[in-house]
Specification:
The complex is a heterotrimer.
Chain A (H helix, E strand, L loop, with lengths): L11 H14 L2 H19 L8 H25 L2 H9 L3 H4 L5 H34 L4 H28 L3 H15 L12 H9 L11 H24 L11
Chain B lengths: L1 H7 L10 H16 L3 H28 L4 H10 L1 H16 L1 H4 L1 H26 L5 H5 L2 H7 L4 H20 L1 H12 L5 H5 L1 H28 L3 H22 L11 H13 L1 H11 L1 H10 L16 H21 L3
Chain C lengths: L2 E12 L2 E12 L2 E5 L6 H8 L7 E6 L8 H4 L2 E4 L11 H11 L4 H14 L16 H13 L5 E5 L7 H16 L3 E6 L2 H5 L4 E6 L2 E7 H7 L6 E6 L2 H10 L3 E7 L2 E6 L2 H11 L7 E6 L4 H9 L1
Parallel strand pairs in C: 3-7, 3-8, 5-6, 6-7
Antiparallel strand pairs in C: 1-2, 1-4, 8-9, 10-12, 10-13, 11-12
Helix pairs in contact in C: 3-4, 4-5
Classes of the chains: A mainly alpha, B mainly alpha, C alpha/beta.
């Protein structure tokens, strides 16, 4: 289909799917959830200040150990593929398949709306963490910038990985946990370069000493994270465009 | 009219089954559905395999303390007189202090077993949590259940039976089976008697873990509007509570029990009381006494890298989770 | 015949499960009913036509082109699936705008298009601000129809659109489809209840067990049925009088009179129909309608599928 001028608008599928997602994420319930997450994360992180002498160290430990290396990967790996699988299960994907858009374009739309949905949870948590860090005086502007850049890249990469797993199987949540266990926990602890396949390894390096002024920031690590995400995105698009899905059930094609 | 009715429609006049049979029929159908995947079967086999590993350990230990076992002969041939002396000391200790040398080994092994429980439970429940209540709520099948001769409590008991049966394979089955097998294969059947307290400890921990985790699983399943969300809620809830607990414990250590995992670990330490065991061993056993003495002078137990763990607060936290779960779930499944 | 959809020896299998088995037919412009019981292969055929499935063998063309992986052709097709699920957190206008954008319409035009489509599907403007999750079944069907017709397609495909609608809703839905047809749109509408479509469609494709039982206009399908039924329904002013008249001539072997409706079982159906005006001569009753009961399209289909 074309517009009035007869030409197909560029990235129409991506635009349309993002618009749909934004509308879903700006309902009152979603906005309230956003505020609750930001407030509760902020409140929770303030507890770090109970012991002032150890606050910086504890903040660093929570930010990297609990948030970036544990919560982010598990959350994104279990949530990232939900958009595609949700549409497949509800059958609403049928409305998209019969549109004049390529499957790769549709998959890109799914990835971006999945990324947006994940960021809608991670974003307020990051706001809460950043605010708590500033209030406690344990992180500087450079550190915050690093945390945000790394977190966004990590979320994008894990969302792409989850999307690829979701394109492959409806059991993407469980497979995502397996991926986390074997690759992010397993491979990340193997030296001699194998560990570079784990996003967590790069995130850990990038965020090392972030409360002390972003000492470990190297663009190479960021490129690895982006590269892993790009490969996952390509793989997911290939699987999605070549697969036949059974709409309206949990069954595989 | 009467004739036509009896010819066209015959009312069932068989004997009605009791309410427990009806509850069990919900559980039977649910179990069939929940165990239909391949991955869950693999994990249940893994959980069950722990029983075999423990039985192997108990068998091996039993053979070590038996005066004339083939294993001991073989080890003596390998190690010579020194090994013979060492194992004959072990045999004597087992006879003299069975509460340490027999029960203690069972206690340590069951305590170690409790570390695998939370992780296996998280994975196994994640594989079927969406099929418990979320499926019925999403497909509106709950209305059909409510239209039958069952109350929502019967439905709840049926669903609870499903989760608790599956979780028992993780928490209770390995304890009971390994205790039975280990003792049956032991050289002296008095091991049954001596290791019985460990069995009780293991079963008590298992029952508490199974009940509390089953309630939590039902809660998560009833909160999800979509079936897929139940799985994500379960895993993310598990992780989030761990993170929240670790942060909140900065304010007060008791907040650590916000995480069910931490509560179970602490309860496990509280039930198995390994510090007491070590202190007893330190006081009674000549060789191990000096070995532990190197780590602690025996005056201050906190010097040792183990503790007895808290019982009351974790139990309170798990109890609170159960009460909240039952309250929420019973509301969610109301017609 | 200038056909819009043309199938030649078309088959589609889901593994070892049969969807469509070696069918050939043509669908002309106009409103065509795709009829068959559950599992007949209607949805499979629709999925093939909309390019969601690839044929296992045979050829299928829509507007002379293969539908699979053909975005250009898909822009000429509007599809309304059977499934009721819609994004419940969205307002209809937002959902339609997104779909229009996915179809490649420039963002500025999407709003006008979406509003026009909702108007054409007769969804009351008062409901436009509500979220789809709060809609009744009938309102959801209108939104589904709106997304199918929004981009002004040449062929609109509707899979069981009347499901769950009340009689008034069905009638109104039929009117909307007729209106679309008057504007030059071709419509392919599926249903497992034939009488829903009998007064709406000009042509039919009847399916059962993955095979085409009959296709063509109502007249063409009737002509394919050689056997006439012996059960005839007559609406007249004096049912008992007419029954007596026919019996006296030895034409019928039984009758049932209910009010002005007379049902007779004739001895020679074909001869009766060829000569029926003369047979009523000499009877005082006024005859309003003569119907061979089993010549209704639904009865033909019933017999075909037995």
């Amino acid at each position: 289909m074309s517009g009035a001028n007869g030409e197909k608008a560029a990235f129409g599928a991506v635009k349309g799917m993002l618009y749909m997602r934004i509308q879903e994420l700006t309902t009152t319930a979603a906005l309230v959830r956003f505020a609750i997450i930001a407030a509760s994360t902020f409140g929770l992180l303030l507890l770090v200040g109970f012991n002032e002498s150890e606050a910086r160290e504890r903040f660093q430990g929570l930010l990297v150990g609990a948030f970036a290396l544990k919560f982010l990967p598990i959350f994104c790996l279990t949530k990232g593929g939900e958009t595609l699988r949700g549409e497949l299960k509800d059958g609403t994907i049928e409305y998209l398949w019969v549109r004049p858009a390529s499957k790769v374009e549709l998959y890109l739309g799914f990835f971006l709306s999945g990324f947006l949905g994940t960021m809608w949870i991670v974003g307020p948590a990051l706001i809460g963490i950043s605010a708590a860090g500033v209030v406690l005086g344990v992180i500087g502007v450079g550190g915050l910038l690093t945390v945000w850049v790394v977190s966004v890249c990590v979320v994008a990469s894990f969302t792409a990985l989850s999307g690829a797993i979701g394109a492959f199987s409806s059991k993407f949540v469980v497979l995502g946990i397996f991926y986390y266990s074997f690759v992010e926990l397993g491979l990340a602890s193997i030296p001699n370069g194998v560990q570079k396949l784990a996003v967590s390894y790069h995130a850990e390096n990038l965020l090392r000493g972030v409360t002390f002024g972003a000492q470990g920031f190297e663009v190479g690590h960021l490129l690895w994270i982006a590269g892993i995400g790009a490969v996952a995105l390509g793989l997911g698009a290939a699987i999605f465009s070549q697969s036949h899905y059974v709409v309206g059930s949990e069954k595989e094609a | 009219m009467k004739k036509a009715w009896s010819a066209k429609y015959r009312r069932w006049e068989g004997e009605g089954v009791g309410v427990w049979a009806r509850r069990l029929s919900i559980a039977r159908y649910g179990l069939k559905l929940c165990l239909s995947g391949k991955i869950i079967k693999i994990f249940l086999v893994l959980a069950g395999a722990q029983a075999l590993i423990l039985s192997g350990v108990f068998f091996f230990y039993g053979q070590l303390v038996a005066p004339e076992s083939a294993l001991l002969d073989w080890l003596e041939r390998l190690g010579g007189e020194q090994v013979r002396t060492m194992f004959s000391a072990l045999t004597s200790w087992a006879l003299l202090y069975p509460e340490i040398c027999v029960d203690g080994i069972y206690r340590i092994m069951f305590y170690l077993l409790s570390f695998s429980g939370p992780f296996l439970s998280m994975i196994i429940v994640a594989l079927f949590v969406h099929r418990l209540i979320a499926n019925d709520l999403a497909s509106n099948a709950i209305v059909i259940y409510n239209s039958k001769a069952l109350t929502r409590w019967d439905y709840l008991i049926g669903k609870f039976t499903i989760v608790s049966s599956i979780l028992s394979v993780v928490w209770i089955f390995p304890v009971v089976v390994s205790w039975l097998l280990g003792n049956l294969l032991s050289p002296d059947w008095s091991f049954f008697y001596h290791s019985f307290p460990s069995l009780i400890r293991g079963v008590v921990l298992g029952v508490i873990a199974v009940v509390s985790l089953s309630c939590l699983a039902l809660l998560v399943s009833s909160l999800a509007k979509k079936t897929g969300a139940a799985v994500a809620f379960w895993i993310l809830g598990w992780i989030s509570l761990s993170v929240v607990a670790s942060v909140a414990s900065f304010a007060h250590p008791a907040f650590d029990y916000v995480s069910p995992t931490q509560a179970i670990y602490s309860l496990s330490a509280g039930i198995f009381r390994l510090l007491d065991l070590v202190m007893d061993a330190q006081g009674m056993l000549p060789f191990f006494g000096s070995f532990f003495g190197r780590m602690s002078d025996g005056m201050d137990p906190s010097d040792l890298p183990i503790d007895n763990g808290e019982v009351f607060l974790p139990l309170l936290a798990l109890g609170a989770y159960c009460v909240i779960s039952i309250a929420v779930v019973s509301r969610r499944i109301r017609a | 015949m200038n056909s819009i959809v043309k199938a030649e020896e078309l088959s589609c299998f889901y593994g070892v499960v049969l969807g469509l088995n070696n069918v050939s037919f043509e669908i002309p412009a106009g409103i065509t009913g795709l009829v068959g019981p559950n599992g007949a292969g209607k949805s499979t055929l629709i999925k093939l036509v909309t390019g969601q499935l690839a044929p296992s063998s045979g050829r299928l063309s829509v507007f002379g082109e293969k539908p699979r992986n053909n975005p250009k052709l898909l822009s000429r097709i509007g599809y309304c699936p059977e499934r009721e699920q819609l994004p419940k957190d969205l307002r209809p206008i937002d959902w339609l705008r997104s779909l229009a954008s996915i179809s490649g319409v420039s963002w500025k035009e999407t709003k006008t298009m979406a509003e026009a489509a909702l108007d054409r599907s007769r969804l009351d403007r008062a409901h436009w601000k509500k979220r789809i999750g709060t809609y009744s079944k009938g309102m959801k069907q209108r939104v589904k129809l709106a997304q199918a017709i929004m981009h002004d397609p040449d062929l609109v495909i509707l899979d069981e659109p009347m499901n769950g609608l009340d009689p008034m809703g069905r009638a109104e839905f039929g009117e909307i489809l007729k209106e679309l047809n008057q504007h030059g749109k071709s419509i392919l509408v599926s249903s497992h209840i034939l009488h829903e479509l009998e007064f709406l469609c000009s042509g039919f494709v009847m399916l059962n067990w993955g095979r085409v039982l009959a296709s063509g206009s109502q007249i063409e399908i009737r002509e394919t049925v050689v056997e006439w039924s012996d059960e005839i329904s007559i609406r007249c002013s004096d049912a008992n009088g007419l029954a007596a008249h026919l019996q006296n001539q030895g034409l019928i072997r039984g009758f049932l009179a209910e009010g002005d409706e007379l049902t007779v079982w004739v001895n020679e159906p074909e001869a009766f129909f060829k000569n029926w005006p003369n047979l009523f001569k000499g009877c005082d009753a006024d005859v309003f309608e003569v119907r061979n009961k089993n010549q209704a399209l639904s009865s033909i289909f019933e017999r075909m599928t037995q």
